[in-house]
Amino acid sequence: MLEIxxxxxxxxxxxxxxxxxxxxxxxxxxxxxxxxxxxxxxxFLLNEEPDxxxxxxxxxxxxxxxxxxxxxxxGKMFRNRGEVNRALRLHQHLVARPDLTNNQRQVxxxxxxxxxxxxxxxxxxxxxxxxxxxxxxxxxxxxxxxxRIYEQLREWEKAFILTECSVIDxxxxxxxxxxxxxxxxxxxxxxxxxxxxxEKLKKALSIYPQSVRVQTLFxxxxxxxxxxxxxxxxxxxxxxxxxxxxxxxxxxxxxxxxQPIELQQLYEVINSEYRRNPDVKMLPALTxxxxxxxxxxxxxxxxxxxxxxxxxxxxxxxxxxxxLSSESDTKAALSELSLALGRLANTLPRxxxxxxxxxxxxxxxxxxxxHHWDSVQSQ
Length: 379
Ligand SMILES: [Zn+2]
Hints:
Strand order of the largest sheet: 2-1-3
Low-confidence stretches: 1-5
Shape: flat
Largest sheet: 3 strands, antiparallel
Strand content: under 5%
Mean pLDDT: 84
Bound molecules: zinc ion
Number of helices: 19
Helix content: over 70%
Distance between the termini: 37 Å
């Protein structure tokens, strides 16, 4: 598609120059020059000599609206084809021209910033986007790419400021704002600047009270201050908002809360969360903590329930196997486990296309995704 558009460009140029021709009919000399330049440029483009075409086009003495528009399309196509240097040359030329309208200049500056970004020259892109925002405060188009640059540069405060003009959806905006504050908090925590951590976290909490990341960072702040029971309270709050967090937190929790009474409290917190909302994916963390506090046998009914009635995944079955091997009769456990494994195996695709990776439950001679013959194999 891109190639077709690229080949159509000469027509667009022709149309632009034709308009210029009509407007300047009285000026015979200029018209002759425009026509000659047009033919030269098109010839170079068709002969795949884009640099020579660029030279000819960029020497155009004046720009009308259509020609400027065509230049912008050409520049975008160069960038999309990975020819960033050509795009840069064209957009730099456009931005420097005195005969652009305000609108054209804004579009050209935005395109120039995107070229620098595509070329990996983040500081140059940043400076162009900032210039655009400063010169045309009502133009917010540069806010999104500029915010992404600050994300890459880990300049979270600047990214935070740009969320207002770059994210329309309110939920998405407050989520991002909270993440930018949390990134700053993690850096401040590493430097042990706890007062600033507290300030940033309170701000994040007021913006997005349901953020699990904010709750876990409050827990980390409490730990840094030696307030261990407060830390546990915050971890619990985070788990209430999102149980899936447990699998990533469990290692940290078991490293931090090592005292028997703390482990017991931790087990009670996680166990009550599991009872409130049983999610089989919590089993590995739950069993790890139960065994840590010597409550191994108390989870046997939960494990039996899982193996007999729930599907789970490879991780939950592996954890159930480990658990049963230490807590119950091995023969009965093996039979229960093999039934659960069989159930899980029936849900997994047995075949895969060697050409495109498409997975299937039944063997077919021709892959339904890439239409290759004889490419389906058992996996
Ligand atoms: Zn295939």
